[in-house]
């Protein structure tokens, strides 16, 4: 057990929607392995220091144990939590999901961003940047990637919103959305087998590896479902948070306007600086292990706080300062090691392209409310803001 038996209520309450709770720094300094009780009544250990979080994310003794898996239809939950099968799936998918391929999508992403900004400007200021740009853009991109018709984009957005929200919708609504999405992807995969296109899913239908074979029907359906969930909601929320963090201090926005070459490192710093990444990554410990001086026994549930790790004073100089020139920047927002986020190249391209288009189109962009008035979206596995009101 941790050095203190006190059980802390989790998640903690931050001072604003974009600032970190004081408990992170206190725990990193005094109790880096803490006993917490979640809002659902689950007891777990919370790790907050960089090295411990990195271990949780990359060590094979720490199995993913995400609540999202419970909402998956067609056996997706079992597949997510079967480590050997998951790694086999990653190896097969990585042959197609390359950084080069994602970079080649940049013109299409820029086109979508311009179209959405056109619509936002036509409707006039103030506008909600999250609903006008952040929410639709990633789902449009994922639909293009998977060869999903444009007419089905709104259905995908609907399913994604319910699938990752733990409190806003009833368990029945979440379950039904999971089943509807699974059924849609089952039919979509079958159609791609019959008539392949030039999209990622059509390519995956034919992938065969000498060691790992080919993706099964269930794995292909899960791939489509997983790319939507992981690739839409996280990036959708990050676009809004990115704008909010950069506009919270005018000098940050002006620094980028003066030097567009900083867009790459600025996006990395946004990813590091984000204090609103969700509840923490869930891990189930399969063997006894020592973390930060504490013995964690097999069977223990652990929450790894990536945003706390990203502000660890042992790794980052002046971690509470947003430095748009920071390099290197070994943040853990995309995970670590062989299990790091497979879609991180796409996420980076989306964020960098969207930021570039915003700077070019709306140099006078500013928040329409004080940063203190921004509200967190509650109940999400991934953190987000309810609205990002802006004017230009």
Structural features:
globular, alpha+beta, 13 strands, 11% strand, monooxygenase, Cytochrome p450, Cyt_P450
List the helices and strands and how they pair.
Layout: E1 7-10, H1 22-30, E2 33-38, E3 43-47, H2 50-58, E4 62-64, H3 76-81, H4 83-94, H5 99-103, H6 106-123, E5 127-128, H7 129-134, H8 136-146, H9 153-163, H10 171-194, H11 200-205, E6 208-209, E7 213-214, H12 217-248, H13 250-258, H14 263-273, E8 281-285, E9 289-291, E10 294-296, E11 301-304, H15 306-309, H16 344-361, E12 366-367, E13 389-391
Parallel strand pairs: 1-2, 3-11
Antiparallel strand pairs: 2-3, 4-8, 5-13, 6-7, 8-11, 9-10, 12-13
What is the compact description of this entry?
The protein is α+β, with helices and mostly antiparallel strands and 392 residues long. The chain has helices at 22-30, 50-58, 76-81, 83-94, 99-103, 106-123, 129-134, 136-146, 153-163, 171-194, 200-205, 217-248, 250-258, 263-273, 306-309, 344-361; strands at 7-10, 33-38, 43-47, 62-64, 127-128, 208-209, 213-214, 281-285, 289-291, 294-296, 301-304, 366-367, 389-391.
Give a written overview of the molecule.
Mean pLDDT is 88; it is low at 68-79. Helix 10 packs across helix 12. The protein has one domain: Cytochrome p450. 43% of the residues are buried. The protein contains 16 helices and 13 strands. With 392 residues, the chain is α+β, with helices and mostly antiparallel strands. A six-stranded mixed β-sheet has the order 1-2-3-11-8-4, with helices on one face. Strands 5-13-12 form a three-stranded antiparallel β-sheet. It has helices spanning 22-30, 50-58, 76-81, 83-94, 99-103, 106-123, 129-134, 136-146, 153-163, 171-194, 200-205, 217-248, 250-258, 263-273, 306-309, 344-361; strands spanning 7-10, 33-38, 43-47, 62-64, 127-128, 208-209, 213-214, 281-285, 289-291, 294-296, 301-304, 366-367, 389-391. It is globular, with a radius of gyration of 21 Å. A hairpin with a 4-residue loop joins strand 2 (33-38) and strand 3.
